[in-house]
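Example record

The entry below shows one chain as it appears in the dataset: sequence first, then structure tokens.
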Amino acid sequence: MSAFDSSIFFKHKTSRELIFMKLYVGNLSFSVTEAELRETFLPFGEVAKVDLVSDRFTGESRGFGFVEMDDNSQADAAIKSLNGSDLRGRAMTVNQAKPKADRNRLDRRV
């Protein structure tokens, strides 16, 4: 063993972890729950993770979140079917999430 064995400190991603597609889901009613969002996406395939974004001070929903799906083709089908569809009286925005670095670069003002 070398002086520094990185495998002790870092978890390696499996090939299964690399195929997830992260979707942005916006224009959500503030009362939508993670369970309800998961149920909305389940007809299109297995949902690996659901995260609703909440205000760090109040804990209330900010009206958007992210859904990770196991398969890209299933995620594409969910985007096509759910983008613009109604959930609790609001037309959802569903698209592939942009990497954080790309968002920050585009949002900067010069």
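Notes for this example: Strands lie at 21-26, 47-54, 61-69, 86-87, 90-91, 93-96. Residues 1-17 have pLDDT under 50 and may be disordered.
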